[in-house]
Design brief:
- This protein is mainly alpha-helical.
- 61% of the residues lie in helices and 3% in strands.
- The chain has helices at 7-25, 30-37, 44-47, 54-72, 84-107, 123-138, 147-179, 204-222, 226-245, 249-271, 281-303, 307-313, 315-330, 335-341, 348-355; strands at 364-369, 379-384.
- It has a two-stranded antiparallel ribbon.
- α5 (84-107) packs antiparallel against α6, α7 packs across α8 (204-222) and α7 (147-179) packs across α9 (226-245).
- The protein is globular and about 70 Å long.
């Protein structure tokens, strides 16, 4: 169902109202819902939004309901379990981010509201800043003082992360089946899952897999029921497959520790006496089987295709290019104020494209409001090509979903 359909906004409003009721009466539910929705709650291919996304709406509703519940109880915030040094560090980070936000907006010529703002506009500073802002607003809502509530909240958060991992793992398999084939490890294709941010590259999926891999290890170690273990083991196999098919050398290096811990833990459990409450016979055999499957996955990607070997052989060449890229980025600093406070949040794309040779964008898109030359619909879309480099012409595209009858 397209988001342009009149039923879509009504359905979203109903779901948001239901979630607000749940968030008010079940204050710990957000610890599971938010991480579960993180990897997929973004409809940018339908809306065209870059700076704003539907996940922001979920977070704003969660924060509003959390503070409303605190106010209903008298407005007293329970004490945070943080040292004075930690509190000072958080405040320092927020102050630094606010200063960078102001510099970013000022460098872009002042704040200008636009639902379709891009990476070179002033609102891109807010796009970079909002994650830290939301995290800071969620701090007073975290469980405190009661150890049982803390343990329950952390388990809810862990299972929420695992639910998000299920969505990512299934989307990776679906994506590869649609574009390359599940067992094709020679095609030069890099997966993105449902992370729309990667339409301009980046490592959103890589970072997500690295940060969530320890939760798989936690679940495999602590789960006791056979059916639950089978589900978690299947998710572990899909997670390893997703990590391998990123063909990202950084992911291989970062996830190596988690996989090593998982292999070591499974090996240790397999060597223990088969006590009913620690490591029953089915669990020992299953751990060995899972270990073999993970190793076979690694061998299949390494031996069964050529793309991984090409990526590894080009590591030195890519490092030289990245060092040149970093030097060009550092070269944008002008004067003591830039070195002390930075260029401002979200200003690197615009500054880099304008100053660095061969660093310009391949194109741009802009929505112009209705005018004399605009269509009756109230505006028009304008596409721009590169300013001076013809080699990147034709690499920028705009997609549109069209209903067929």
């Amino acid at each position: 169902m397209s988001l342009n359909h009149p039923v879509a906004p009504l359905a979203c409003l109903i779901l948001l109202s239901v979630w607000c009721c749940v968030a008010v009466w079940q204050p710990g539910a957000w610890l599971g819902v938010v991480p579960a929705c993180l990897p997929w709650l973004n409809f940018s291919p339908w809306t065209g939004w870059v700076v704003f996304e539907e996940f922001d709406i979920l977070l704003l509703a969660t924060i509003a309901c959390g503070y409303a519940r605190l106010a209903w109880r008298g407005g007293h915030f329970p004490p945070m379990r943080m040292t004075r040094a930690a509190n000072c560090w958080v405040m320092l980070c927020l102050a630094s981010a606010l200063a960078s936000l102001w510099r970013g907006v000022d460098d872009a010529g002042g704040l200008a509201w636009d639902w379709y703002a891009g990476y070179t506009d002033a609102l891109n500073a807010w796009r970079v800043f909002k994650s830290l802002c939301f995290a800071a607003l969620c701090l007073p809502l975290l469980p405190r003082t009661d150890s049982s509530a803390d343990a329950s909240g952390m388990k809810t958060f862990a299972w929420g992360v695992l639910c998000g991992l299920v969505v990512v793992a299934v989307s990776v398999v679906w994506e590869r089946a649609a574009f390359t084939g599940v067992t094709d490890f020679s095609s030069q294709y890099r997966i993105v899952a449902l992370f729309w941010e990667m339409h301009v590259g980046g490592a959103a999926l890589d970072v997500y897999l690295v940060l969530t891999a320890p939760f798989i290890v936690w679940a495999l170690v602590n789960v006791r029921r056979r059916q639950s273990w089978l589900l978690i083991a299947g998710l572990a196999v899909l997670l390893v497959y997703a990590a391998l098919t990123t063909f990202s050398r950084g992911v291989y290096l970062a996830m190596g520790l988690s996989i090593a811990v998982l292999i070591g833990r499974l090996w240790w459990q397999a060597r223990q006496a088969p006590l009913p409450d620690v490591c029953p016979k089915w669990r020992a055999r299953s751990d060995v089987a899972l270990l073999l499957v993970v190793m076979l996955e690694v061998v299949a990607v390494v031996v069964g295709g050529t793309f991984l070997s090409e990526r590894l052989s080009g590591a030195e060449r890519d490092m030289v290019r990245r060092l040149d890229h970093w030097r060009s980025g550092v070269g944008l600093m002008n004067g003591p104020s830039d070195w002390l406070l930075g260029k401002g949040l979200g200003r690197l794309p615009s500054q880099y494209a304008r100053v660095v040779a061969d660093g310009e964008f391949s194109g741009a898109v802009q929505w112009q409001a209705a005018g004399r030359s605009a269509a009756r619909s109230g505006g028009q879309v304008v596409l721009f090509g590169p300013r001076s480099n013809p080699d990147v012409a034709g690499m920028f595209a705009l997609t549109q979903r069209v209903e067929t009858t």
